[in-house]
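Hi Y.,

Following your request, here is the sequence exactly as I used it, all 75 residues.
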Amino acid sequence: MNLTWVSMSFVPYCKRMGLCILKDDINFIERILPTFPEARQKYVMKQYMEVWMSKQTQGAGRRAANTFLRNLCDK
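Below is the corresponding structure, written out as tokens. Let me know if you'd prefer a different format.
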């Protein structure tokens, strides 16, 4: 998967799901995502969205999802 997938597919999907993804989120994802095997990247992003959507507010969801991604790449 190349990084254009994030901008071309993932970002529009987030917006359709009601997630207000910011440019900083996109930059963070594009920096972190290549650290995962390509076969696992879409699964990781699915988990990212699930974490985000599990929170009550956009801000809490964004923080939780980005923390999830950061912690996952540190393992």
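The chain is about 75% helix and 0% strand.

Thanks again,
Q.
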